[in-house]
Amino acid sequence: MSISTPLSFDDGPGPSTHALLDVLRASSCQALFFVLGSNLARAMDVAARAVREGHVLGNHTYTHARPGVLSDAALTDEIEQTDALIREAYRLAAVPEPASIPLRLPYGLEPEDVRADVLARLKRSHTGWTAILDDWQRPAPSPHALVDAMRWHIAESRARGQDVLFCMHDGSRLAEARPATVEAVRLLLSDPDWRAGQLANGRGAGQ
């Protein structure tokens, strides 16, 4: 049985993406990968592998510019350029292209964000998160600190009857490795209590 997970990863593909895909495959779990076009252009094979193994590719723009840095036209170009690369990854994987591509802006979409008008014109929704982990920091927290934070958030969200979607990172603009992220995900997915909770919540294949 394939178990969907509340996991999403930004800024890849990166040096740790293959290892992360190995961990996810070992647990028959799928995730969302919000890729940077600049990284994707250099690692189409990694993205194609993710698609073949049932993961979903999302758009995280091309360069990870901060809010307000790009003009509306430049941001539109970045989104469209990254969309085209994502579609090419699906073609390379021999997997049908999705009807729509999820999108997550760098740094998230804040109230009164200057980029919101671009999304409105493109008729694109924004995918946020319920918790963002500090795995992007230098140095990153330990795997055990990361997985403890994940378990706490899952428990708190379940107690409130709320869904969970983590934002973690499998790369960066500088192509940094994320070994702590890979190990934290392995620890979470190997936890029998977590897997039992996923099954109890009906998070099976196709859900």
TrEMBL record:
A Pfam family the protein falls into: Polysacc_deac_1
GO molecular function: hydrolase activity, acting on carbon-nitrogen (but not peptide) bonds
PROSITE patterns xrefs: NODB
Transmembrane spans: none
GO biological process terms, semicolon-separated: carbohydrate metabolic process
Residue intervals of the NodB homology domain: 3-197
Name the record gives this protein: Chitin deacetylase
